[in-house]
Amino acid sequence: MENSCENIQEQIPEFVTGALPAEKADELQHHISQCKVCSEYLEALQADDKLLGEFAEAMQSRVVRLENNVIEALGLRPSDKTVQTIPIWRTIMKSRITKITAAAVIIIAVTIVVNRFGGSIDGSSVALGQIMENMKKMPWMVMVTKGPEGVVAEQWLCFDREYWIAKTADGTITSYDYAKREQYKYDPSSKTVTIDYLSQDIPYFISSPQAVLESLFEQVTEQATKPGTEITQEVGQYKGKKIKIHKMAFSANELNHRSQLFIDIQRNLLVRMLGSSTDSDGKVIIRGELEFEYPEKGPSNIYDLGVPKSATVVNNAPHEDVLEVVRQYRSCRENGPQQYIAIVTSGMQGTKIIYRNGDLLRTEFYFFRDINTWHEKRKRIESNFDSLWKWWTDNNNSQLTQVYLSDGKYGYYCYGLPDKIRSYRVDKRNPGHEALDTIGWPEISKYFTPERQANIIETDYSKENDLVCIELVFPGKIDTESKVTLPQKWVYYLDPEIDYICVREKYYRQRDIAWEDKDDSWLDGIDPNKIPPDKLPQIKEVIEVEETKAGQWYPKRIARYADDGTPREEKRMIIPTVYLQTDPPFPDGIFDPGSLPKK
Fold first, then answer.
1. How many CB atoms lie within 10 A of CB 424?
2. Are residues 349 and 458 in the same domain?
3. Three-state secondary-structure class, residue 456
4. Same-domain check for residues 137 and 104
5. Which of 424, 426, 551, 595 is most exposed, with the fewest beta carbons within 10 Å of its own?
6. Which domain holds residue 68?
7. Which of 81-90, 136-145, 281-290 has the lowest mean pLDDT?
8. pLDDT, tens digit, for every residue of 360-386?
Protein backbone atom coordinates (compact mmCIF):
# COMPACT_ATOMS: atom_id res chain seq x y z
CA MET A 1 0.00 0.00 0.00
CA GLU A 2 1.38 3.45 -0.95
CA ASN A 3 2.28 6.04 1.70
CA SER A 4 -0.49 8.28 0.35
CA CYS A 5 -3.00 5.53 1.19
CA GLU A 6 -1.75 5.40 4.76
CA ASN A 7 -2.25 9.15 5.09
CA ILE A 8 -5.71 8.92 3.54
CA GLN A 9 -6.81 6.09 5.85
CA GLU A 10 -5.69 8.08 8.88
CA GLN A 11 -8.16 10.80 7.82
CA ILE A 12 -11.10 8.51 6.96
CA PRO A 13 -12.56 8.44 10.53
CA GLU A 14 -12.66 12.27 10.50
CA PHE A 15 -14.20 12.19 7.02
CA VAL A 16 -16.98 9.81 8.16
CA THR A 17 -17.93 11.99 11.14
CA GLY A 18 -17.80 15.28 9.17
CA ALA A 19 -14.84 16.60 11.18
CA LEU A 20 -12.60 17.01 8.10
CA PRO A 21 -12.43 20.49 6.47
CA ALA A 22 -14.34 20.71 3.18
CA GLU A 23 -11.23 21.14 1.01
CA LYS A 24 -9.51 18.07 2.48
CA ALA A 25 -12.75 16.13 2.32
CA ASP A 26 -12.99 16.76 -1.45
CA GLU A 27 -9.39 15.60 -1.96
CA LEU A 28 -9.99 12.49 0.10
CA GLN A 29 -13.22 11.69 -1.76
CA HIS A 30 -11.40 11.95 -5.10
CA HIS A 31 -8.65 9.56 -3.93
CA ILE A 32 -11.16 7.02 -2.60
CA SER A 33 -13.07 7.01 -5.90
CA GLN A 34 -9.85 5.99 -7.68
CA CYS A 35 -8.40 3.60 -5.04
CA LYS A 36 -9.92 0.16 -4.39
CA VAL A 37 -7.95 -0.40 -1.15
CA CYS A 38 -9.08 2.86 0.48
CA SER A 39 -12.62 2.39 -0.83
CA GLU A 40 -12.83 -0.98 0.95
CA TYR A 41 -11.38 0.57 4.09
CA LEU A 42 -14.05 3.29 4.05
CA GLU A 43 -16.78 0.70 3.46
CA ALA A 44 -15.59 -1.39 6.40
CA LEU A 45 -15.67 1.58 8.76
CA GLN A 46 -19.05 2.77 7.51
CA ALA A 47 -20.50 -0.70 8.19
CA ASP A 48 -20.25 -0.18 11.92
CA ASP A 49 -20.49 3.63 12.05
CA LYS A 50 -24.21 3.66 12.77
CA LEU A 51 -23.99 0.88 15.36
CA LEU A 52 -21.15 2.48 17.29
CA GLY A 53 -22.85 5.86 17.12
CA GLU A 54 -25.93 4.34 18.72
CA PHE A 55 -23.67 2.71 21.29
CA ALA A 56 -22.07 6.03 22.24
CA GLU A 57 -25.46 7.71 22.59
CA ALA A 58 -26.78 4.81 24.64
CA MET A 59 -23.75 5.15 26.89
CA GLN A 60 -24.30 8.86 27.52
CA SER A 61 -26.76 8.51 30.40
CA ARG A 62 -24.68 5.75 31.97
CA VAL A 63 -21.49 7.83 31.74
CA VAL A 64 -23.26 10.74 33.47
CA ARG A 65 -24.57 8.42 36.19
CA LEU A 66 -21.16 6.83 36.69
CA GLU A 67 -19.56 10.29 36.78
CA ASN A 68 -21.90 11.21 39.62
CA ASN A 69 -20.95 7.99 41.42
CA VAL A 70 -17.27 8.92 41.13
CA ILE A 71 -17.91 12.44 42.42
CA GLU A 72 -19.84 11.04 45.37
CA ALA A 73 -17.24 8.36 46.10
CA LEU A 74 -14.42 10.92 46.12
CA GLY A 75 -16.39 13.30 48.32
CA LEU A 76 -16.40 16.01 45.65
CA ARG A 77 -19.17 18.41 44.78
CA PRO A 78 -20.18 19.63 41.31
CA SER A 79 -18.90 23.06 40.33
CA ASP A 80 -21.34 25.95 40.18
CA LYS A 81 -19.84 26.99 36.85
CA THR A 82 -21.77 26.43 33.68
CA VAL A 83 -20.34 23.45 31.83
CA GLN A 84 -20.56 23.13 28.05
CA THR A 85 -21.58 19.62 26.95
CA ILE A 86 -19.51 18.17 24.10
CA PRO A 87 -20.90 15.13 22.19
CA ILE A 88 -18.69 12.24 23.29
CA TRP A 89 -18.74 10.39 19.96
CA ARG A 90 -17.58 13.32 17.84
CA THR A 91 -14.92 14.19 20.41
CA ILE A 92 -13.51 10.68 20.36
CA MET A 93 -13.59 10.41 16.58
CA LYS A 94 -11.53 13.58 16.15
CA SER A 95 -8.57 11.59 17.44
CA ARG A 96 -6.91 9.27 14.93
CA ILE A 97 -8.10 5.93 16.24
CA THR A 98 -10.42 3.48 14.57
CA LYS A 99 -14.06 3.13 15.58
CA ILE A 100 -13.63 -0.24 17.21
CA THR A 101 -10.83 1.16 19.35
CA ALA A 102 -13.04 4.12 20.23
CA ALA A 103 -15.80 1.79 21.41
CA ALA A 104 -13.32 -0.20 23.45
CA VAL A 105 -11.95 2.99 25.03
CA ILE A 106 -15.46 3.89 26.22
CA ILE A 107 -16.09 0.42 27.61
CA ILE A 108 -12.68 0.20 29.27
CA ALA A 109 -13.08 3.63 30.85
CA VAL A 110 -16.48 2.75 32.21
CA THR A 111 -15.26 -0.67 33.36
CA ILE A 112 -12.50 0.98 35.37
CA VAL A 113 -15.08 3.20 37.06
CA VAL A 114 -17.31 0.17 37.66
CA ASN A 115 -14.52 -1.82 39.28
CA ARG A 116 -13.46 1.03 41.53
CA PHE A 117 -16.71 2.67 42.42
CA GLY A 118 -19.31 -0.09 42.31
CA GLY A 119 -21.26 0.87 39.20
CA SER A 120 -22.83 -1.63 36.81
CA ILE A 121 -22.80 -2.16 33.05
CA ASP A 122 -23.47 -5.05 30.74
CA GLY A 123 -19.99 -4.77 29.17
CA SER A 124 -20.92 -5.58 25.56
CA SER A 125 -20.60 -3.26 22.57
CA VAL A 126 -23.45 -2.73 20.15
CA ALA A 127 -21.22 -3.77 17.23
CA LEU A 128 -20.45 -7.17 18.74
CA GLY A 129 -24.06 -7.51 19.84
CA GLN A 130 -25.29 -6.98 16.29
CA ILE A 131 -22.91 -9.61 14.94
CA MET A 132 -24.17 -12.07 17.55
CA GLU A 133 -27.81 -11.33 16.66
CA ASN A 134 -27.03 -11.92 12.97
CA MET A 135 -25.50 -15.29 13.86
CA LYS A 136 -28.64 -16.29 15.74
CA LYS A 137 -30.74 -15.64 12.63
CA MET A 138 -28.85 -18.24 10.59
CA PRO A 139 -30.61 -21.63 10.02
CA TRP A 140 -27.56 -23.44 11.41
CA MET A 141 -24.21 -22.46 12.82
CA VAL A 142 -21.19 -24.77 12.95
CA MET A 143 -18.20 -24.09 15.21
CA VAL A 144 -15.10 -26.12 14.41
CA THR A 145 -12.44 -26.06 17.13
CA LYS A 146 -8.86 -26.64 15.97
CA GLY A 147 -5.67 -27.19 17.92
CA PRO A 148 -2.05 -27.82 16.98
CA GLU A 149 -2.94 -31.39 15.95
CA GLY A 150 -6.01 -30.56 13.90
CA VAL A 151 -9.75 -30.63 14.56
CA VAL A 152 -10.60 -31.05 18.24
CA ALA A 153 -14.39 -30.78 18.07
CA GLU A 154 -17.28 -29.56 15.96
CA GLN A 155 -20.50 -28.09 17.34
CA TRP A 156 -23.76 -27.60 15.46
CA LEU A 157 -26.32 -25.11 16.76
CA CYS A 158 -29.88 -24.55 15.54
CA PHE A 159 -31.46 -21.57 17.30
CA ASP A 160 -35.00 -22.01 15.95
CA ARG A 161 -35.17 -25.70 16.83
CA GLU A 162 -33.36 -25.22 20.15
CA TYR A 163 -30.87 -27.96 19.32
CA TRP A 164 -27.15 -28.45 20.01
CA ILE A 165 -24.97 -31.36 18.92
CA ALA A 166 -21.22 -31.85 19.26
CA LYS A 167 -18.64 -34.37 18.08
CA THR A 168 -15.15 -34.62 19.58
CA ALA A 169 -11.99 -36.00 17.99
CA ASP A 170 -12.31 -39.33 19.85
CA GLY A 171 -15.73 -39.95 18.28
CA THR A 172 -17.89 -39.05 21.28
CA ILE A 173 -21.13 -37.43 20.13
CA THR A 174 -23.53 -35.57 22.42
CA SER A 175 -26.80 -33.83 21.57
CA TYR A 176 -29.20 -31.66 23.56
CA ASP A 177 -32.77 -31.21 22.38
CA TYR A 178 -33.82 -28.34 24.61
CA ALA A 179 -37.45 -28.29 23.48
CA LYS A 180 -37.95 -32.02 24.20
CA ARG A 181 -35.53 -31.99 27.17
CA GLU A 182 -33.66 -34.99 25.74
CA GLN A 183 -29.96 -35.71 25.98
CA TYR A 184 -28.24 -38.32 23.76
CA LYS A 185 -24.64 -39.40 24.24
CA TYR A 186 -22.69 -41.88 22.14
CA ASP A 187 -19.65 -43.62 23.67
CA PRO A 188 -17.49 -45.01 20.84
CA SER A 189 -15.52 -47.29 23.17
CA SER A 190 -18.62 -49.24 24.24
CA LYS A 191 -20.63 -48.43 21.09
CA THR A 192 -23.52 -47.37 23.33
CA VAL A 193 -26.05 -44.56 23.03
CA THR A 194 -27.41 -43.36 26.38
CA ILE A 195 -30.63 -41.34 26.51
CA ASP A 196 -31.28 -39.17 29.58
CA TYR A 197 -33.67 -36.43 30.59
CA LEU A 198 -32.04 -33.05 30.03
CA SER A 199 -32.20 -31.38 33.42
CA GLN A 200 -32.76 -27.66 33.84
CA ASP A 201 -29.87 -27.66 36.30
CA ILE A 202 -27.06 -27.61 33.73
CA PRO A 203 -24.27 -25.00 33.38
CA TYR A 204 -25.43 -21.74 31.84
CA PHE A 205 -22.97 -21.85 28.94
CA ILE A 206 -24.71 -24.94 27.51
CA SER A 207 -28.24 -24.22 28.78
CA SER A 208 -29.41 -23.26 25.25
CA PRO A 209 -27.93 -22.56 21.81
CA GLN A 210 -28.26 -18.84 22.61
CA ALA A 211 -26.30 -19.31 25.84
CA VAL A 212 -23.50 -21.17 24.01
CA LEU A 213 -23.07 -18.21 21.67
CA GLU A 214 -23.54 -15.53 24.32
CA SER A 215 -20.94 -17.16 26.57
CA LEU A 216 -18.46 -17.12 23.71
CA PHE A 217 -19.07 -13.42 23.03
CA GLU A 218 -18.90 -12.67 26.74
CA GLN A 219 -15.36 -14.05 26.79
CA VAL A 220 -14.45 -11.87 23.80
CA THR A 221 -15.95 -8.78 25.44
CA GLU A 222 -14.23 -9.55 28.73
CA GLN A 223 -10.90 -9.64 26.94
CA ALA A 224 -11.66 -6.47 24.96
CA THR A 225 -12.50 -4.55 28.13
CA LYS A 226 -9.40 -5.50 30.09
CA PRO A 227 -7.42 -2.35 30.98
CA GLY A 228 -4.30 -2.28 28.84
CA THR A 229 -5.78 -4.26 25.96
CA GLU A 230 -4.57 -2.98 22.60
CA ILE A 231 -7.17 -3.19 19.83
CA THR A 232 -6.49 -2.62 16.14
CA GLN A 233 -8.45 -3.25 12.95
CA GLU A 234 -7.59 -3.97 9.35
CA VAL A 235 -9.32 -5.10 6.18
CA GLY A 236 -8.37 -8.30 4.39
CA GLN A 237 -9.48 -11.45 2.57
CA TYR A 238 -10.41 -14.87 3.94
CA LYS A 239 -11.61 -17.75 1.78
CA GLY A 240 -12.33 -15.30 -1.02
CA LYS A 241 -14.47 -12.98 1.13
CA LYS A 242 -13.81 -9.42 2.23
CA ILE A 243 -13.33 -9.30 5.99
CA LYS A 244 -12.54 -7.00 8.89
CA ILE A 245 -9.95 -8.35 11.30
CA HIS A 246 -10.18 -7.12 14.87
CA LYS A 247 -6.95 -7.77 16.77
CA MET A 248 -6.63 -7.69 20.55
CA ALA A 249 -3.46 -7.98 22.63
CA PHE A 250 -2.81 -7.82 26.36
CA SER A 251 -0.44 -9.25 28.96
CA ALA A 252 -1.34 -11.04 32.16
CA ASN A 253 0.36 -13.54 34.49
CA GLU A 254 3.67 -13.15 32.67
CA LEU A 255 2.09 -14.26 29.39
CA ASN A 256 1.30 -12.31 26.23
CA HIS A 257 -2.17 -13.02 24.87
CA ARG A 258 -3.25 -12.37 21.29
CA SER A 259 -6.58 -12.93 19.57
CA GLN A 260 -8.14 -12.08 16.23
CA LEU A 261 -11.75 -11.93 15.09
CA PHE A 262 -12.50 -12.29 11.37
CA ILE A 263 -15.79 -10.60 10.39
CA ASP A 264 -17.46 -11.20 7.03
CA ILE A 265 -18.16 -7.59 5.95
CA GLN A 266 -21.03 -8.38 3.58
CA ARG A 267 -23.04 -10.52 6.03
CA ASN A 268 -21.63 -9.03 9.28
CA LEU A 269 -20.96 -12.54 10.61
CA LEU A 270 -18.07 -13.96 12.60
CA VAL A 271 -16.18 -16.50 10.43
CA ARG A 272 -12.99 -17.17 12.36
CA MET A 273 -11.29 -16.65 15.72
CA LEU A 274 -7.60 -17.13 16.50
CA GLY A 275 -6.03 -17.11 19.94
CA SER A 276 -2.59 -17.72 21.38
CA SER A 277 -0.55 -17.18 24.54
CA THR A 278 3.23 -16.88 24.57
CA ASP A 279 5.83 -16.50 27.31
CA SER A 280 8.44 -13.75 27.55
CA ASP A 281 10.72 -15.71 25.18
CA GLY A 282 8.01 -15.97 22.54
CA LYS A 283 7.36 -19.67 23.15
CA VAL A 284 3.76 -20.63 22.36
CA ILE A 285 2.09 -21.98 25.51
CA ILE A 286 -1.39 -22.45 24.06
CA ARG A 287 -2.94 -21.86 20.67
CA GLY A 288 -6.43 -22.41 19.33
CA GLU A 289 -8.69 -21.65 16.41
CA LEU A 290 -12.44 -21.53 15.85
CA GLU A 291 -13.98 -21.56 12.39
CA PHE A 292 -17.63 -20.68 11.82
CA GLU A 293 -19.86 -21.84 9.01
CA TYR A 294 -23.56 -21.20 8.35
CA PRO A 295 -25.11 -24.05 6.32
CA GLU A 296 -28.79 -24.18 5.38
CA LYS A 297 -29.23 -27.69 6.83
CA GLY A 298 -27.76 -29.63 9.72
CA PRO A 299 -27.93 -33.03 11.45
CA SER A 300 -31.38 -34.07 12.67
CA ASN A 301 -29.91 -36.53 15.22
CA ILE A 302 -26.65 -38.07 16.40
CA TYR A 303 -26.79 -40.75 13.72
CA ASP A 304 -26.35 -38.08 11.05
CA LEU A 305 -22.91 -37.36 12.55
CA GLY A 306 -21.76 -40.98 12.26
CA VAL A 307 -23.23 -42.99 15.13
CA PRO A 308 -23.68 -46.56 13.83
CA LYS A 309 -27.26 -47.79 13.67
CA SER A 310 -26.11 -50.99 15.39
CA ALA A 311 -25.09 -49.12 18.58
CA THR A 312 -26.72 -50.38 21.79
CA VAL A 313 -29.32 -47.96 23.18
CA VAL A 314 -29.86 -47.46 26.93
CA ASN A 315 -32.89 -45.29 27.68
CA ASN A 316 -32.79 -43.75 31.17
CA ALA A 317 -35.42 -41.09 30.45
CA PRO A 318 -38.71 -41.17 32.39
CA HIS A 319 -41.77 -42.74 30.79
CA GLU A 320 -43.67 -40.63 28.26
CA ASP A 321 -46.68 -40.25 30.56
CA VAL A 322 -44.41 -38.62 33.17
CA LEU A 323 -42.79 -36.35 30.58
CA GLU A 324 -46.18 -35.22 29.23
CA VAL A 325 -47.29 -34.16 32.71
CA VAL A 326 -43.96 -32.43 33.33
CA ARG A 327 -44.27 -30.51 30.04
CA GLN A 328 -47.68 -29.16 31.08
CA TYR A 329 -46.38 -28.47 34.57
CA ARG A 330 -43.35 -26.54 33.29
CA SER A 331 -45.50 -24.56 30.87
CA CYS A 332 -47.68 -23.36 33.75
CA ARG A 333 -44.57 -22.66 35.83
CA GLU A 334 -43.00 -20.54 33.10
CA ASN A 335 -46.26 -18.70 32.32
CA GLY A 336 -46.98 -17.74 35.91
CA PRO A 337 -46.58 -14.17 37.22
CA GLN A 338 -43.38 -12.66 35.81
CA GLN A 339 -43.50 -9.05 37.06
CA TYR A 340 -44.24 -8.65 40.74
CA ILE A 341 -43.18 -7.76 44.25
CA ALA A 342 -44.09 -10.44 46.80
CA ILE A 343 -43.90 -10.11 50.57
CA VAL A 344 -43.64 -13.53 52.23
CA THR A 345 -44.23 -13.36 55.98
CA SER A 346 -42.95 -16.14 58.24
CA GLY A 347 -43.83 -14.89 61.72
CA MET A 348 -40.92 -15.18 64.14
CA GLN A 349 -38.64 -16.25 61.27
CA GLY A 350 -38.80 -12.81 59.68
CA THR A 351 -39.95 -11.81 56.20
CA LYS A 352 -38.77 -12.04 52.60
CA ILE A 353 -39.43 -9.43 49.92
CA ILE A 354 -39.12 -10.86 46.40
CA TYR A 355 -38.75 -8.63 43.32
CA ARG A 356 -39.14 -10.21 39.91
CA ASN A 357 -39.08 -8.76 36.42
CA GLY A 358 -38.76 -11.63 33.95
CA ASP A 359 -35.28 -13.15 34.37
CA LEU A 360 -34.30 -10.46 36.87
CA LEU A 361 -34.82 -11.56 40.45
CA ARG A 362 -33.95 -10.17 43.86
CA THR A 363 -34.79 -11.60 47.29
CA GLU A 364 -34.26 -9.61 50.49
CA PHE A 365 -34.39 -11.17 53.97
CA TYR A 366 -35.50 -9.02 56.90
CA PHE A 367 -35.53 -9.65 60.63
CA PHE A 368 -36.89 -7.67 63.57
CA ARG A 369 -34.91 -4.87 65.13
CA ASP A 370 -36.40 -5.72 68.52
CA ILE A 371 -37.88 -9.20 68.68
CA ASN A 372 -39.10 -8.59 72.24
CA THR A 373 -41.61 -5.97 71.06
CA TRP A 374 -42.66 -7.86 67.91
CA HIS A 375 -45.84 -9.35 69.37
CA GLU A 376 -47.05 -5.90 70.39
CA LYS A 377 -46.08 -4.20 67.13
CA ARG A 378 -47.62 -6.86 64.90
CA LYS A 379 -51.06 -5.85 66.17
CA ARG A 380 -50.65 -2.52 64.38
CA ILE A 381 -49.82 -4.10 61.01
CA GLU A 382 -52.72 -4.80 58.70
CA SER A 383 -52.66 -8.00 56.67
CA ASN A 384 -52.25 -6.35 53.26
CA PHE A 385 -49.39 -5.54 50.92
CA ASP A 386 -49.20 -1.76 51.51
CA SER A 387 -49.19 -2.02 55.31
CA LEU A 388 -46.56 -4.78 55.35
CA TRP A 389 -44.40 -2.99 52.78
CA LYS A 390 -44.39 0.20 54.83
CA TRP A 391 -43.49 -1.64 58.03
CA TRP A 392 -40.78 -3.98 56.76
CA THR A 393 -38.95 -1.40 54.63
CA ASP A 394 -38.70 0.97 57.62
CA ASN A 395 -35.21 0.66 59.09
CA ASN A 396 -36.58 1.53 62.52
CA ASN A 397 -38.57 -1.72 62.51
CA SER A 398 -36.45 -4.21 60.61
CA GLN A 399 -32.90 -5.10 59.65
CA LEU A 400 -31.91 -6.36 56.19
CA THR A 401 -29.75 -9.46 56.75
CA GLN A 402 -29.28 -11.11 53.33
CA VAL A 403 -29.78 -10.33 49.66
CA TYR A 404 -29.81 -12.74 46.71
CA LEU A 405 -29.84 -11.33 43.19
CA SER A 406 -29.96 -12.89 39.74
CA ASP A 407 -29.44 -10.81 36.60
CA GLY A 408 -30.33 -13.55 34.10
CA LYS A 409 -26.79 -14.90 33.81
CA TYR A 410 -25.19 -14.74 37.22
CA GLY A 411 -26.29 -15.10 40.79
CA TYR A 412 -25.05 -12.82 43.57
CA TYR A 413 -25.09 -13.51 47.32
CA CYS A 414 -24.71 -10.83 49.96
CA TYR A 415 -25.01 -11.84 53.61
CA GLY A 416 -23.75 -10.96 57.10
CA LEU A 417 -25.52 -7.62 57.08
CA PRO A 418 -25.14 -5.07 58.54
CA ASP A 419 -21.68 -5.41 60.12
CA LYS A 420 -19.99 -8.47 58.60
CA ILE A 421 -20.90 -8.18 54.96
CA ARG A 422 -19.75 -10.99 52.69
CA SER A 423 -20.61 -11.36 49.02
CA TYR A 424 -19.74 -13.51 46.05
CA ARG A 425 -20.94 -14.32 42.52
CA VAL A 426 -21.83 -17.69 41.03
CA ASP A 427 -22.24 -18.67 37.39
CA LYS A 428 -25.92 -19.48 37.72
CA ARG A 429 -28.94 -17.53 36.59
CA ASN A 430 -30.87 -18.43 39.72
CA PRO A 431 -28.66 -19.08 42.76
CA GLY A 432 -31.31 -20.80 44.86
CA HIS A 433 -33.81 -17.97 45.12
CA GLU A 434 -37.23 -18.88 46.42
CA ALA A 435 -39.72 -17.07 44.21
CA LEU A 436 -43.37 -17.78 43.42
CA ASP A 437 -42.43 -20.38 40.82
CA THR A 438 -40.24 -22.36 43.22
CA ILE A 439 -42.85 -22.09 46.01
CA GLY A 440 -45.79 -23.21 43.88
CA TRP A 441 -43.98 -25.24 41.22
CA PRO A 442 -40.84 -26.91 42.67
CA GLU A 443 -38.35 -28.11 40.06
CA ILE A 444 -39.43 -31.76 39.86
CA SER A 445 -37.51 -32.61 36.71
CA LYS A 446 -34.26 -31.39 38.28
CA TYR A 447 -34.20 -34.71 40.14
CA PHE A 448 -34.73 -36.94 37.09
CA THR A 449 -31.63 -39.13 36.97
CA PRO A 450 -30.99 -42.77 36.01
CA GLU A 451 -30.86 -43.61 39.74
CA ARG A 452 -34.27 -42.09 40.50
CA GLN A 453 -37.34 -43.86 39.18
CA ALA A 454 -40.14 -41.47 38.19
CA ASN A 455 -43.72 -42.71 37.85
CA ILE A 456 -47.28 -41.46 37.72
CA ILE A 457 -49.13 -43.10 40.61
CA GLU A 458 -52.47 -42.91 42.39
CA THR A 459 -52.89 -42.57 46.16
CA ASP A 460 -55.97 -42.13 48.29
CA TYR A 461 -55.08 -38.44 48.64
CA SER A 462 -54.72 -37.89 44.87
CA LYS A 463 -58.01 -39.69 44.14
CA GLU A 464 -59.95 -37.79 46.82
CA ASN A 465 -58.71 -34.41 45.53
CA ASP A 466 -58.52 -35.08 41.74
CA LEU A 467 -54.77 -34.53 41.65
CA VAL A 468 -51.98 -35.82 39.42
CA CYS A 469 -49.30 -37.57 41.47
CA ILE A 470 -45.64 -38.03 40.50
CA GLU A 471 -43.44 -40.31 42.58
CA LEU A 472 -39.64 -40.22 42.57
CA VAL A 473 -37.83 -43.11 44.28
CA PHE A 474 -34.13 -43.09 45.11
CA PRO A 475 -32.71 -46.47 46.23
CA GLY A 476 -30.51 -46.74 49.28
CA LYS A 477 -26.85 -47.54 48.75
CA ILE A 478 -23.61 -48.32 50.56
CA ASP A 479 -20.43 -46.88 49.07
CA THR A 480 -16.91 -48.32 49.21
CA GLU A 481 -16.22 -46.67 52.56
CA SER A 482 -19.42 -48.17 54.02
CA LYS A 483 -21.05 -44.77 54.02
CA VAL A 484 -24.81 -45.24 53.89
CA THR A 485 -27.36 -43.25 51.89
CA LEU A 486 -30.84 -44.16 53.06
CA PRO A 487 -33.62 -44.84 50.54
CA GLN A 488 -35.63 -41.71 49.74
CA LYS A 489 -38.91 -40.91 48.10
CA TRP A 490 -40.53 -37.70 46.88
CA VAL A 491 -44.26 -37.54 46.12
CA TYR A 492 -45.66 -34.48 44.31
CA TYR A 493 -49.40 -33.73 44.04
CA LEU A 494 -50.28 -31.38 41.15
CA ASP A 495 -53.65 -29.68 40.64
CA PRO A 496 -54.49 -29.29 36.91
CA GLU A 497 -57.44 -27.01 37.77
CA ILE A 498 -55.20 -24.27 39.18
CA ASP A 499 -52.29 -24.13 36.71
CA TYR A 500 -50.75 -27.41 37.95
CA ILE A 501 -49.64 -25.85 41.25
CA CYS A 502 -47.93 -28.46 43.42
CA VAL A 503 -50.38 -28.35 46.30
CA ARG A 504 -48.63 -31.05 48.31
CA GLU A 505 -45.08 -32.35 48.46
CA LYS A 506 -44.06 -35.22 50.73
CA TYR A 507 -40.53 -36.45 51.37
CA TYR A 508 -39.51 -39.75 53.00
CA ARG A 509 -36.13 -41.02 54.22
CA GLN A 510 -36.13 -44.31 56.13
CA ARG A 511 -33.96 -47.40 56.68
CA ASP A 512 -36.78 -49.95 56.51
CA ILE A 513 -38.61 -48.80 53.43
CA ALA A 514 -41.80 -50.40 52.17
CA TRP A 515 -41.52 -49.26 48.52
CA GLU A 516 -38.01 -50.73 48.27
CA ASP A 517 -39.21 -54.17 49.44
CA LYS A 518 -36.41 -54.07 51.97
CA ASP A 519 -36.11 -54.54 55.65
CA ASP A 520 -33.15 -53.18 57.58
CA SER A 521 -31.15 -56.40 57.01
CA TRP A 522 -29.47 -54.67 54.02
CA LEU A 523 -27.49 -52.73 56.64
CA ASP A 524 -26.17 -55.81 58.48
CA GLY A 525 -22.48 -55.50 59.26
CA ILE A 526 -22.38 -51.72 58.81
CA ASP A 527 -21.02 -49.55 61.63
CA PRO A 528 -24.16 -48.01 63.25
CA ASN A 529 -22.34 -44.64 63.45
CA LYS A 530 -22.27 -44.57 59.65
CA ILE A 531 -26.02 -45.09 59.30
CA PRO A 532 -28.06 -41.86 59.22
CA PRO A 533 -31.14 -41.78 61.46
CA ASP A 534 -34.62 -42.17 60.04
CA LYS A 535 -36.49 -38.95 59.43
CA LEU A 536 -40.20 -38.32 59.86
CA PRO A 537 -41.89 -37.71 56.51
CA GLN A 538 -41.80 -33.97 55.72
CA ILE A 539 -44.76 -32.22 54.09
CA LYS A 540 -45.05 -28.89 52.31
CA GLU A 541 -48.68 -28.05 51.57
CA VAL A 542 -50.31 -25.11 49.79
CA ILE A 543 -53.44 -24.56 51.87
CA GLU A 544 -54.70 -21.45 50.09
CA VAL A 545 -54.32 -20.05 46.58
CA GLU A 546 -55.25 -16.75 44.93
CA GLU A 547 -55.68 -15.56 41.37
CA THR A 548 -54.15 -12.43 39.82
CA LYS A 549 -56.14 -9.98 37.72
CA ALA A 550 -54.60 -11.66 34.66
CA GLY A 551 -56.07 -15.02 35.72
CA GLN A 552 -52.81 -16.56 36.97
CA TRP A 553 -52.96 -18.72 40.08
CA TYR A 554 -50.30 -18.52 42.78
CA PRO A 555 -49.80 -19.99 46.29
CA LYS A 556 -51.12 -17.75 49.08
CA ARG A 557 -50.48 -19.73 52.29
CA ILE A 558 -47.97 -22.56 52.63
CA ALA A 559 -47.64 -24.98 55.56
CA ARG A 560 -44.53 -27.06 56.31
CA TYR A 561 -44.61 -29.77 58.95
CA ALA A 562 -43.49 -33.27 59.94
CA ASP A 563 -46.00 -36.07 59.43
CA ASP A 564 -46.12 -37.54 62.92
CA GLY A 565 -49.71 -38.70 62.65
CA THR A 566 -51.23 -35.53 64.13
CA PRO A 567 -53.76 -33.81 61.79
CA ARG A 568 -52.41 -30.57 60.35
CA GLU A 569 -55.27 -28.57 61.80
CA GLU A 570 -54.20 -29.57 65.32
CA LYS A 571 -50.55 -28.59 64.86
CA ARG A 572 -49.06 -25.36 66.14
CA MET A 573 -47.00 -24.02 63.25
CA ILE A 574 -45.98 -20.89 61.43
CA ILE A 575 -47.71 -20.62 58.06
CA PRO A 576 -45.87 -18.37 55.56
CA THR A 577 -48.25 -16.09 53.68
CA VAL A 578 -47.71 -14.39 50.31
CA TYR A 579 -48.87 -10.80 49.68
CA LEU A 580 -48.52 -10.00 45.98
CA GLN A 581 -48.44 -6.86 43.87
CA THR A 582 -48.27 -7.54 40.13
CA ASP A 583 -46.84 -5.19 37.47
CA PRO A 584 -45.44 -2.83 40.13
CA PRO A 585 -43.13 0.16 39.70
CA PHE A 586 -39.74 -1.25 40.76
CA PRO A 587 -37.34 0.82 42.87
CA ASP A 588 -34.52 2.31 40.77
CA GLY A 589 -31.52 0.01 40.42
CA ILE A 590 -33.13 -2.80 42.39
CA PHE A 591 -31.79 -5.47 39.97
CA ASP A 592 -28.35 -3.86 39.57
CA PRO A 593 -25.55 -5.91 41.22
CA GLY A 594 -23.89 -2.58 41.93
CA SER A 595 -26.76 -1.73 44.28
CA LEU A 596 -25.97 -4.61 46.65
CA PRO A 597 -24.93 -3.54 50.17
CA LYS A 598 -21.22 -2.91 50.67
CA LYS A 599 -18.92 -2.72 53.65
1. 10
2. no
3. strand
4. no
5. 551
6. 3-77+86-122
7. 81-90
8. 999 999 988 776 666 666 666 778 999
